[in-house]
Amino acid sequence: MEQKKFMDIQRLKEGYADGFVPGDLIVIQEKFDGSNAAARYDAETGKMVAFSRRHTLDQNNTLNGFYNYVQELNPEDYKDVPDYVIFGEWSGARNAIIYYPENTKKWYVFDIYDVREEKYLPQSEVKAFAETHGLTYINTFYVGPFVSWEHVQSFMDHPGYGEIQEGIVIKNQTRLNDPNSRLPFVVKIVGDKFHEVAKMNHVKKIQDPQKLQERTEAQELVKSVVTRRRVEKELYKMRDEGIIPTEWCEQDMKTVARNLPNRIYTDCVKEEPEVVRAAGQYFGKFCSVISMNYAREIILGPTGAK
User: Fold this and answer.
1) In this protein, which residues make up the domain named RNA ligase (predicted)?
2) Sign for the pseudo-dihedral over CA of 247, 252, 257, 259
3) What is the pLDDT of residue 195?
4) Which of 80, 89, 129, 295 has the most C-beta neighbours closer than 10 Å?
5) Angle (CA) 102 106 108, round 5°
């Protein structure tokens, strides 16, 4: 059976913050310091298959007992979902954080990937699946609308499995399965004691809630003036000026990208100078991103927007 590897979760940095806007449905979960482990039902053998992050497990390579744990699961409970790869953290070995004894030798499920649909399931379905199959769902702090990065940071240092918490994982359910790798829909924040980069000042810089909040507020300001209507109007002007053809299509996107963002920026400087000043250094970048998203939607249809 071919192994499906779990996504690489990126550490939160300033640019990634743009992928979370107020109102997005998010889930905040505890980052568990265990071993990435997965299980899937094999329809050909009628058995459960266990995986580490990179390998298929067997009796000679058990990932500190995870293989044995999976063999004790009842395959009949999973034969209706052979396309589901169930991901979790296995607490079978001692890692950097020492958890309470009662929280070891357990599998904490946090995601499910459907290989047929090629997408991750919403967390509400993951939680329901874990509960109905007698699996343990990962400690979840918050399910609701994204408010601010300061609000997100408030869930740090609330360990649920031991005296120390490694960090948190933030999952944007509104953008679930969004292929835009420049703005991942899942990010992590690691506590200072367990940061994964050497320079502490760099960690503080990229996770500064005030800085992230400034970006979020600036993004909302830009969105208030860089509207679909403004972009649509500018595209029609470009058509009338002969920059793009009357019947525009995907082949015209490069021309649009070279011209549209600057035209929208210039128009906003002229018509909405107060907003441009208020957004400051962020206006140009957000203006470009938002205007091109609307352009893709207008020219390519809803599936073209990133």
Assistant:
1) 26-188
2) negative
3) 53
4) 295
5) 115
